[in-house]
Design brief:
It contains three helices and nine strands, in the order βαββαββββαββ. The protein has 142 residues and is mainly beta.
Length: 142
Amino acid sequence: MFGALTPIEVHVPPQLAQSLTQAKHPVPPPQTGQSLIDTGATFTSVHEPLLVALGLQPINVIQAGTANGPVNQNVYAVRINFPALGWDVGLIEVTGSNLTGQMTPASHGQTPQPLMALVGRNLLARCCLHWEGSAGFWSISW
């Protein structure tokens, strides 16, 4: 077992999508990739270059504790969807992080993929997570 990985889509927030549509500007397609459920993370965090690629601007800055000590992180408003779980979380605040070089593990002949997001407790507080370590599986309900 390599951790609780699930596909994720990060979209511009609904208000921005509506404003872009009304101004006859294209709405950027969602950024898609793999996320890791991280019960040790206070906030859900997305690789910051992907947030910038969506054209998002920070709405706040927070000081976050990391393994390397405290750092300032930008906060962004986004809409998150977990397609494999059938969940559209809706609007949520996430921090922008540097996940460069973080890869999903190679398993069952699959090629490692870049890790796009860490799903933290600000989102997990809405869920019930069951981890069955000895059997090597996890489940989550909304």
